[in-house]
Write a structure and sequence with these properties.
Blueprint: H1 3-19, H2 49-52, E1 56-62, E2 80-86, E3 103-106, E4 111-114, H3 140-144, H4 162-169, E5 198-199, E6 216-219, E7 224-226, H5 250-257, E8 288-291, E9 298-301, H6 311-316, H7 321-331, H8 336-346
Parallel strand pairs: 1-2, 5-6
Antiparallel strand pairs: 2-3, 3-4, 6-7, 8-9
Helix pairs in contact: 7-8
């Protein structure tokens, strides 16, 4: 095979391969080819709104003439909707009542209606802007009776007036028709005043007869008072003295507080047998109280052998401590019982 034939075959193969490829400018372009994402799926930007479930406005629709003609619902027009501009009775998928403002929407299989004009066709047989009266509703006047328009009076029922409402608001909840009872020894109640005359600064002319019952009046502040006549003698009291009665002074009160209850004016006797013990002082430590040679005398004295009659004579017949100790030394340690005997004799 020649070089020319080899080149021709190569060019032919390249041309065939190129013809089977897609131009990059056609990817994702209008009337081109769709591209896939990493999972091998179409991207959302390349799907029609109807496939995504969105609604696409198609314009207005005359329901009386089916203009423009509504196509058969399909996946291709899913989400398409028209707004009714003229009411009509064209049957679209069993629906034949269309009002101005309603929407006709394709769900991909049938056409549905979104009712935006749910309104009452008539009221009591009337249409348009209807204002009803009681006579427009059969039997209403009989049921309600006569409509009251006048305010109530003490003899006729009616509406509550503003003044009656104000009065009612001033009445306490659960208020009753209370009557104040007359006061007695066991009932709290009201009493009548003797006089309506207001009791001023000066007393009214009231008798000063003894054992007189005086009436209750009121003073200028509305307080109850009893005006009893009396004479102010303006008595002046002074502090008591030894010669005149009077008030107790603070000095006498202090003195009285220092006196024990039931105290009397006691004087201790000074005769023989009623003497007080003399003060000991620190120089009389260890001494004894001894009567003096003269009646009614006492002295603190150091006690001597001579102060006890016969004591010296009794001691003269006793062995001394020195002689007992000498005897103990001569007898020996084994005869300590003799020492005990001699010590007992000295005791």
């Amino acid at each position: 095979m020649s070089l020319d034939s080899n080149l021709q075959s190569a060019f032919t193969a390249v041309g065939t391969a190129v013809k089977s490829k897609i131009s990059s400018s056609e990817k994702g372009a209008v009337n081109g080819v769709a591209t896939l994402d990493g999972a091998g799926k179409l991207t959302a930007s390349q799907l029609p709104a109807s496939a995504m479930g969105g609604m696409i406005y198609q314009g207005i629709w005359d329901a009386s003439t089916n203009s423009p003609a509504i196509p058969t619902s399909s996946v291709n027009n899913k989400g398409h909707y028209y707004k009714v501009s003229v009411a009509g009775s064209t049957t679209i998928d069993t629906i034949n009542e269309w009002k101005v403002g309603d929407w006709i929407v394709s769900n991909g299989s049938v056409w549905d209606k979104i009712d935006n004009t749910d309104q009452v066709s008539t009221v009591a047989g009337r249409t348009g802007a209807v204002v009803l009266g009681t006579s427009d509703i059969t039997g209403l006047d009989t049921t309600l009776g006569t409509i009251v328009t006048a305010n109530a009076t003490t003899s006729t029922s009616g509406l509550m007036s503003g003044s009656d409402k104000t009065k009612l608001d001033g009445v306490a909840t659960n208020a009753n028709n209370y009557t104040l009872p007359n006061a007695s020894t066991n009932i709290t109640g009201g009493v009548k005043l003797l006089s309506d005359t207001v009791q001023g600064t000066s007393a009214n002319a009231i008798t000063s007869t003894a054992s007189r019952t005086y009436g209750v009046q009121v003073d200028g502040t509305g307080k109850a008072v009893v005006n009893v006549p009396w004479v102010d003698t303006n008595t002046t009291y002074v502090v008591a003295t030894t010669g005149a009665n009077g008030l107790m002074s603070s000095t006498d009160k202090t003195k009285l507080d220092g006196v024990a209850t039931g105290a009397n004016n006691y004087t201790h006797p000074t005769s023989d047998g009623n003497l007080h013990v003399p003060a000991t002082s620190t120089t009389n430590n260890g001494k004894v109280l001894m009567a003096g040679a003269t009646a009614g005398t006492l002295n603190w004295t150091t006690l001597a052998i001579s102060n006890t009659t016969g004591l010296q004579t009794a001691l003269d017949d006793k062995a001394t401590t020195t002689s007992v100790t000498t005897l103990s030394n001569n007898v020996g340690a084994t005869d300590t019982n003799y020492v005990t005997v001699f010590n007992a004799a000295l005791a």
